[in-house]
Amino acid sequence: MGRFDGRRSREAVSYRPASVKDLLVEMKDTAELLIDLSYSAVLHASPSVAREVVELEHRMDVLQMRARMSLMLAARKPSEAETLAPVLGVVAAADKVSDAAGDIARIVIEEIGLPDAMRGALTEGVETLVRGTVADDSPYEGRTLKEIDLESETGVRVIAIRRDDDWILNPGPRTRLNRGDVTLLRGPETGVAEAYPRLTGEAFEADEPVEPAIDDLERAVDSIVLMKNLSELAVDLAYGSVLFDNEELAEEVYNLEIEVDALQSRFEAWTLRAAKAAEDPVTLRGLIHLGVATEEISDAALEITEGVMRDIGVHPVVEMAVKESDEIITRTRVERGSELAGTRIESGVPATEIATSVLAIRRPDEGWLVGPDLDTTVRAGDVIIAKGTRTSAAEFAELAT
After folding, report:
1. Which parts of the sequence belong to the RCK C-terminal domain (predicted)?
2. SS3 of 60, please?
């Protein structure tokens, strides 16, 4: 995406004292939201969501510049420069993720070419994502998310808020909605249809389903949803491998990169076959762009792990902050005969007394199971990627052996 696209060109950035670890975490959250919004803009054919990707790119640009400034000040001798060099690589890779997400958004903004029936081909499990501005007379204005209790009433979640030039990622119960806030809402279409008018003062108009003019369009849409989930997971694990100096997570990023390459190859082959049968093959041009951008995100995630894979130690400015972290990401292999084998996982939560959430499972001979609503039964040989406290991670690992 061009640096001069959007509301402004370049923003002056001055140094602000900040923890390198905090900046990396903020960049990780921003990268994940960029991926989420860009793919969702394609799946829902939403120019308004795509334009928020451009806004978020500006935020990533500022974070990258501040991270570079902090890293330059942290390196005072050659040994420190050696351990900080991979972190500079992380910053550079984040730029690639941001650019690739912008390229995906541009497919919608510039109408490069997508099948009209894509939204109608979405499975029931894919939630609606919309952009809405808080109206002056909205009953939600001036109230916290806890007071509104939007998710309990409608099933809709506020996943991010843009307030002028600032972003609130992962808003919590105490986050207050102000008039003029640009919100991103995700949830079932019926819930969005109920919440959107209250928030914006405008009617929610769902697009009428279009009959697919291309055979097997559902397969392509399912592939895009999988690309989105795998890309988000790869970036999450890549940053986790750096923040926690975890080579096991870096290895899983490598496994994910192989999976994404194979998926992208199959997706391109499907697109070429569909173009042969389409009345106007140009309408599929955006799918080729999407496949290329997906591979770029996967490659960038692998670049983030380079310092870990080369066994370059973590700089103290990162290491000290990591030790204070309450939550970690782990990789656990389920042994035959273990207590964990046969355990049911519903909506990413295993049926155990341990407070942990399952992000993904790599299953031998089947590949990756990934998604926010992961439902399956754990099998021996499964490699589970989970997130939880250090204590719960240790207890979870014991159940797997």
Report:
1. 115-202, 315-401
2. helix
Q: Can you read off the two tokens belonging to residue 73?
A: 């000040």
**Which domains occur in the chain, in start order?**
20-117+215-317 (1.20.58.220), 124-200 (3.30.70.1450), 326-399 (3.30.70.1450)
Count CA atoms within 13 Å of residue 176 on its CB side.
5
Q: Which residue is associated with the tokens 């491998």?
A: 241
Q: Could you give the CA distance from residue 246 to residue 73 in angstroms, rounded to a whole number?
A: 25
Return the pLDDT at 263: 92
What mean pLDDT do residues 39-53 have? 92
What are residue 101's phi and psi, to 5 degrees? -65, -40
Give residue 204's identity as a one-letter amino acid code: F
Q: Which of 300, 298, 171, 129 is nearest to 226 (CA)?
A: 298
Tokens found for residue 118? 């894509």
Question: Other C-beta atoms within 10 Å of 257: how many?
Answer: 21
C-alpha distances (whole Å) from 140 to each of 153, 170, 184, 252, 397 are 13, 18, 14, 42, 43
Q: Of all residues in the chain, what percent carry a pLDDT higher than 90? A: 46
Q: What are the CA-CA distances from residue 9 to residues 13, 30, 54, 55 (Å)?
A: 13, 20, 11, 11
Distances 7 to 66, 109, 366 between C-alpha atoms, Å: 21, 14, 45
Average pLDDT across the chain, whole number: 86
Farthest CA pair distance, the chain: 64
| C-alpha span between 157 and 62 (Å, rounded) | 27
269: which residues sit within 8 A by CB, 6+ positions away? none
**Which residue bears the tokens 């997906």?**
294
Are 400 and 292 in contact by the 8 Å Cβ rule? The answer is no
